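Sat 14:20. Reprocessing the chain from the morning session after the first attempt stalled halfway. Input below, unchanged.
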Amino acid sequence: MSAHLTLACALALVAPLAAAQDPAAARQASSAQADDTMAQMDHSQMDHSQMDHSQMDHSQMDHSQMDHSQMDHSQMDHSQMDHAQMDHSQMDHAQMDHSQMDHAQMDHSQMDHAQMDHSQMDRSRMDHAQMDLPRTPVPVPTAEDYAAAFPDLHTTHSHTSMPVSYLLVDRLEAWDRASGSGQAWEVNGWYGGDIHRLRLRSEGERDRGRTHEADVELLYGRAISPWWEVVAGMRQDFIPGAAQTRAAIGIQGLAPYKFEVSATAYLGGPSVAALRVEGEYTLLLTSRWILQPRMEAHLSAEQDAARGAGGGLDSASLGLRLRYEINRRFAPYLGWERVRYFGDAADLADSDRESRFVAGVRFWF
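Finished this time. Tokens:
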């Protein structure tokens, strides 16, 4: 430090002499020598705590290479500083203590909070009761509001006047077991509208190359509710026994839980009165795989050996069929069916029970 002061004193003595000879050159030389002297000075050991920087012009100073990491800013007053032009994007705020900062006057509308980590925020002090309340309270509905939302409907359902037709081959199947092969069919069709319909039904079965059951029914159907229909007409039996014609009357429709139910009584002719009850359920496993359980029971009033009727519950069958709808009109299926004969009907049959695996197709047009 003493060497630098000695050099400064020497310059001070020489400067007046040079100024007397050439004032402009003296000023230029003095400035150059002063700059060179300042450049050679080591400021790292200098004590600036007592220096007054308030009148110094720092606008031309280059702070980009200065190391501010060791500077103590805790006592600096930033309240009058203009931060509007400062670039904070590269600043590390991780170590800053924001607990004492007043954010009440800050404008957060332009801030990007997308990258902020809220996982450590304490939400226990947040008032959610006020957050859930709507800005405009919803008024309590009045009787006039309910009347406007649920008006009385005085119009009736409009039914189509154009007749349509439908024919469903519900079962066209075959089986092969130790006692022999067999085939069976069941057909349902109708023509008409929503209220009045002309219906056609037929069932039959072959076993070991011989048809032992076949019938056809022609019925008139009248809808009595959106889900139920009364049917009446006649039935023609071809086999077993001699052909005969009987009157048929019954009801069919969709029971609760979507069970399809049909019950038909047959009266008159040389045979005894009989009743046939059928029920099935359609279970959609997927949009194409469909499982269909099916039940059928036959009852007769008296014994008729020619037709295999024993009086009472003659037979009952339970089947399960799984079909795959290639399209809505055509579906092959595999299934299993169990048939049981009761009472005198079991004595008339070859066996009182039988089981069989079946394969068939279901289609409609």
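The mean pLDDT is 78.
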